[in-house]
Specification:
Length: 246
């Protein structure tokens, strides 16, 4: 059995003070399914989040990490600094990073390796755009993204989480049907199995495309879906509660 995970990607929202306030509200929530709950604030809010999370079972994640240990990379943050702050997980390769900041499958792989080397657990995002879905090449796209992202990961594969995010469903209110999401995640797991064998059965694969309280139960009922990477619904304790307690 793979333990479910519900991770909140807060994107560029919540000041340090707002981060602390939201975490205090989240700490009051139940967790009837025993999921790993992760919150991923902005980098500038990570220290405040780490302090607020002390004594809590909620885990801390970051939204990005650079692949270099140090150097002239203005505006970036290295894995060692995240680790020192108490970060456990880091989102890598989100479609917004690919679209707006030029990340590629190859640089995603470099970031994954840097995160693992520092003892962080990557949440690696893969997903197709709408015309790729319409052309029937979704599985080809996401399997390639997955295999490149995981090059040279080796025995650390079980410390990797993959998040399938159909780009056309992020922030749009559109959602893949449970069957569509399950089918694509099964294909991703097959791609992992091609390289890593039976370890694929122990890799958690999340769905992230407008998952919310209304559809979380049906999505989580699918056998291949191990959790969710949640955007807008994670910015409110009430809305996030509906996903955590799917």
């Amino acid at each position: 059995m793979r333990k479910p995970m519900i991770a909140g990607n807060w994107k560029m929202n919540k000041t340090p003070a707002e981060t602390k306030a939201l975490i205090e509200d989240l700490k009051k929530l139940g967790n009837k399914n025993g999921a790993d709950v992760v919150v991923c604030p902005m980098t500038v809010s990570l220290a405040a989040a780490a302090e607020a999370l002390k004594g809590s079972e909620i885990h801390l994640g970051a939204q990005n990490v650079h692949f270099a240990d140090h150097g002239a990379y203005t505006g970036e943050c290295n894995a060692a600094s995240l680790k020192e702050l108490g970060v456990e997980y880091v989102i890598i390769g989100h479609s917004e990073r690919r679209q707006y900041f030029g990340e590629t499958d190859e640089t995603v792989n470099q970031r994954v390796l840097a995160a693992l080397a520092a003892g962080l657990k990557p949440i690696v995002c893969v997903g197709e755009v709408l015309n790729e879905r319409q052309q029937g090449i979704t599985n080809e796209i996401v399997c390639k993204q997955t295999k490149v992202a995981l090059l040279n990961v080796g025995e650390q594969i079980e410390n990797v989480i993959v998040a399938y995010e159909p780009v056309w469903a992020i922030g749009t209110g559109l959602t893949a049907t449970p069957d569509q999401a399950n089918e694509t995640i099964a294909a991703i797991r097959g791609a992992i199995r091609d390289v890593f064998g039976d370890a694929a059965d122990r890799v958690r694969i999340l769905y992230g495309g407008s998952m919310n309280a209304k559809n979380a139960h049906d999505l989580m009922a699918q056998p291949e879906i191990d959790g969710g990477l949640i955007g807008g619904a994670s910015l409110s304790a009430e809305k996030f509660d509906g996903v955590i307690n799917f």
